[in-house]
Amino acid sequence: MTWTEHAWQAIAPIYKRIIEMPFLAELSKGTLAQERFQFYIMQDSGYLEHFGKALALLGARAAATEDALAFMRFAENALVVESLLHESYLKDFGIPDKGTLEPACHHYVHFLKSTAALDAVEIGMAAVLPCFWIYKAVGDHISKSPQAPANPYQKWIDTYGGEEFGIAVRQAIAICDRAASATTEQTRAAMTKAFITASRLEYDFWDGAYQLRMWK
Ligand SMILES: Cc1ncc(C[n+]2csc(CCO)c2C)c(N)n1
């Protein structure tokens, strides 16, 4: 079994809870309250900024030039392409700026940044993988469910269910598998732990948005 197959098995219960979340079920049907989606998009804009920098840092730390280039492209994509989706939604909602990072987003970005900066590079790569893989799985899952007519969240669904995104996800998976097979058992175990933590934080990010969870 490859490391990524093992890691995905380890998060199976978390992934199951993610696809059952009301945030995603309602987004898929187009019935999600705009206030909740708006909160999510604002938080995600902040997330992408930090996440893009964590990806760039992993690119700088990657041993193989090919992996460095892949992570730099992921970083550019997070900072430029995905941000455009957010900007278009922020414009639709008439929101001029991104606001502050609320608890779920704050926790997630700082986990990713500290892991990318201070842990072995393989562990940093494992920590960012759920961001790709869970979004692809969720995008595919929603794209396969019955389509709601004129869903206001269709642009979001198309971004993550699309084939172009699938290529990046397969690349990130392949890099992690190569890194895992070239490292020690101890580092592989730490990679799995980081992958699980990031998956929990993905759950919490949607949960925080659904509950409009803010600093007290
Ligand atoms: C909380 C949260 N997690 C994952 C993504 C998806 N995502 C963000 S950047 C990137 C890779 C480079 O484009 C991917 C897949 C998101 N938007 N928000």
From TrEMBL:
<dbReference type="InterPro" id="IPR050967">
    <property type="entry name" value="Thiamine_Salvage_TenA"/>
</dbReference>
<protein>
    <recommendedName>
        <fullName>Aminopyrimidine aminohydrolase</fullName>
        <ecNumber>3.5.99.2</ecNumber>
    </recommendedName>
</protein>
<comment type="pathway">
    <text>Cofactor biosynthesis; thiamine diphosphate biosynthesis.</text>
</comment>
<dbReference type="InterPro" id="IPR027574">
    <property type="entry name" value="Thiaminase_II"/>
</dbReference>
<dbReference type="GO" id="GO:0005829">
    <property type="term" value="C:cytosol"/>
</dbReference>
<feature type="domain" description="Thiaminase-2/PQQC">
    <location>
        <begin position="8"/>
        <end position="211"/>
    </location>
</feature>
<dbReference type="Pfam" id="PF03070">
    <property type="entry name" value="TENA_THI-4"/>
</dbReference>
<comment type="similarity">
    <text>Belongs to the TenA family.</text>
</comment>
<keyword id="KW-0378">Hydrolase</keyword>
<dbReference type="InterPro" id="IPR016084">
    <property type="entry name" value="Haem_Oase-like_multi-hlx"/>
</dbReference>
<comment type="function">
    <text>Catalyzes an amino-pyrimidine hydrolysis reaction at the C5' of the pyrimidine moiety of thiamine compounds, a reaction that is part of a thiamine salvage pathway.</text>
</comment>
<dbReference type="GO" id="GO:0009228">
    <property type="term" value="P:thiamine biosynthetic process"/>
</dbReference>
<keyword id="KW-0784">Thiamine biosynthesis</keyword>
<dbReference type="GO" id="GO:0009229">
    <property type="term" value="P:thiamine diphosphate biosynthetic process"/>
</dbReference>
<dbReference type="InterPro" id="IPR004305">
    <property type="entry name" value="Thiaminase-2/PQQC"/>
</dbReference>
<dbReference type="GO" id="GO:0050334">
    <property type="term" value="F:thiaminase activity"/>
</dbReference>
